[in-house]
Design a protein that fits this description.
The complex is a heterodimer of chains A (145) and B (106). Chain A is α+β, with helices and mostly antiparallel strands. Chain A is built from two helices and nine strands, in the order ααβββββββββ. Chain B is elongated, with a radius of gyration of 16 Å. The chains are: A alpha+beta (145), B mainly beta (106). Strand 6 of chain A pairs antiparallel with strand 5 of chain B, so a sheet runs across the interface.
């Protein structure tokens, strides 16, 4: 075996030994469960979050969706997901026409630099998304301290 | 014990969409973080928030460990009548909390 190949294999081994949390599979499963198997389309959702975050322990985030919020056409649920936090889910918000406007704000944790994904499910079942890549300089604490 | 703040406009015009802001005092311990002794601190989070206005559910949220400590959640609501807003929380270790705020019409 050449030296180059053994290095390559060692690298692959490192990738496989990463902790099992925050895998793309768990993110996909969480999104599928939220979307109810519907195709996820880009648009209608606007995720407002700083692209450069100093403190991952409390990151202000706001999601708004283009919707008249009438009984015939409204947003039912808005959710936030991350691929590399220990769990893919961040929060699920349940809305109704009583809200008048489709918008929610909260503060979240970010374990590392990663995209943040916002999804919205309409009352007709369609699912829309917007994601923003966020750079985190101080991660939310996973280690002691 | 827990404390929750609900911020609403003092007066709302009928039909106006107002923003309701809720802030709850809670550590939201993730269950992924070791303490000073190296042992992982057990999870202690708020899992659910529900908002009722005059008996009707107007908003709810399912929260996961990635919500920051002292959860802050803001949402809009269309006000047509005066009434009481009831915000209730449920969480790990039997945590329950309830806070009310009155909404008056201008």
């Amino acid at each position: 075996m050449t030296r180059r190949r053994s290095l390559l294999l060692a690298g692959a081994g490192l990738v496989l030994l990463r902790p099992s949390w925050g895998t793309p599979e768990s993110l996909r499963a969480a999104i599928d469960a939220f979307a109810g198997g519907q195709a996820v389309r880009t648009g209608r959702v606007t995720l407002a979050i700083d692209t450069l975050v100093e403190n991952g322990n409390t990151v202000p985030v706001s999601v708004s969706v283009q919707s008249p919020m009438t009984p015939a056409d409204h947003v039912q649920r808005i959710a936030l997901f991350t691929p590399q936090n220990p769990l893919p889910e961040v929060a699920v918000f349940h809305l109704s026409p009583a809200n008048g406007r489709a918008q929610v704000s909260t503060r979240m944790r970010l374990a590392t630099t990663q995209p943040v994904i916002a999804l919205a499910v309409m009352n007709d079942g369609s699912v829309w998304r917007h994601s923003v890549d966020v750079v985190v300089t101080l991660a939310a604490c996973l280690e002691g301290g | 014990m827990a404390r929750a703040l609900i911020r609403t406009p003092a007066l709302a015009r009928p039909g106006e969409i107002v923003e309701i802001r809720v802030l709850l005092q809670h550590p939201m311990e993730t269950g992924f973080r070791p303490g000073v002794d190296g042992q992982v601190l057990p999870r202690d989070i708020v899992t659910r928030m529900e908002v009722h206005f005059e008996g009707e559910r107007v908003f709810a949220a399912d929260l996961f460990p990635a919500v920051a400590a002292n959860p802050y959640i803001a949402f809009p609501m269309r006000v047509t009548v005066a009434g009481n807003l009831v915000v209730s929380f449920q969480g790990d270790n039997g945590f329950v909390h309830r806070e009310t705020a009155a909404i008056r019409l201008a």
